[in-house]
Design a protein that fits this description.
By secondary structure, the chain is α/β, with parallel strands linked by helices. The protein has one domain: TIM Barrel. Helix content is 27%, strand content 20%. The chain has 8 helices and 12 strands. The strands form 3 sheets. A 7-stranded parallel sheet has the order 1-4-5-6-7-8-9. The chain has a 3-stranded antiparallel sheet with strand order 10-12-11, with no helix packed on it. It has a two-stranded antiparallel ribbon with strand order 2-3. Strand 4, helix 3 and strand 5 form a beta-alpha-beta unit.
Length: 286
Amino acid sequence: MGKDSKIEWTHHTFNPWWGCTRVSPGCEHCYAERMAKWRGHDVWGPKAERRELSANHWKEPIAWNAAAARNGTRARVFCASMADVFEDRRDLDARREQLWGIIESTPHLDWLLLTKRPQNVASLAPWTDNWPRNVWLGATAEDQQRLDERLPALTSLAARVLFLSCEPLLGPVDLSRWVEGAKRGDNRAIDWLIAGGESGPKARPMHPEWLCSLRDQSVSAAIRFYFKQWGEWRPSASGPVKGHASQVLYRASGEPFTIVRLGKKKAGRLLQGRTWDEFPDPNYDV
């Protein structure tokens, strides 16, 4: 992980450490936990030590920033794919302080800080009402309960870009309370929404109506929409596919349809015949 990330919506990934603790249903089949264990690192759970990275690893964003400056472009950095920057542990404070300094010294990089713990951001981030303009702050909301629990904290923060990651999408999500609240000035608006299904050996299917609803709500509210992937499962217009597991799901109308486990690569990321690759506008003065 690092330069040229395989995650579709970012250019690079950067981890200040490895390790985390599960907090909600979206964590149940966590790919990062699975990868850490596969590589022999016992870094998951409230009592486990977190894995620290090398000094050379911390130099990588400086090189990415220099390359972006030379090219006259901006690069997105997802932080952190193997951890949660806002996990509230005092043994991580020194690394967090180091991270804040890196973010401030790399103005040609847009840092995407995605958390399942937005309630901790105000006490752990140093910027209060004066956030660096190259920080995009996001929260994961895999279902309605997590959206309603996490959006009050997220929308109270002053990062320039606020975003949601509804991946893995495990249930229907209604944004209307927050969209209408933003119109009234009760809360900040969400600028960007990422949606996607679950991948991995125990992946749960994503109902296509949940996904289409999020797409339609985003378009209606002028929220930039990015569809990352179907995950392991996707709908099949022709029914079951030989050699692949399948399930029958039902539309809101009661009509049955078949969803097939094709694997992440074959399932792809087309939604009703097209890709959705929208981003907030990165062009601004820093």
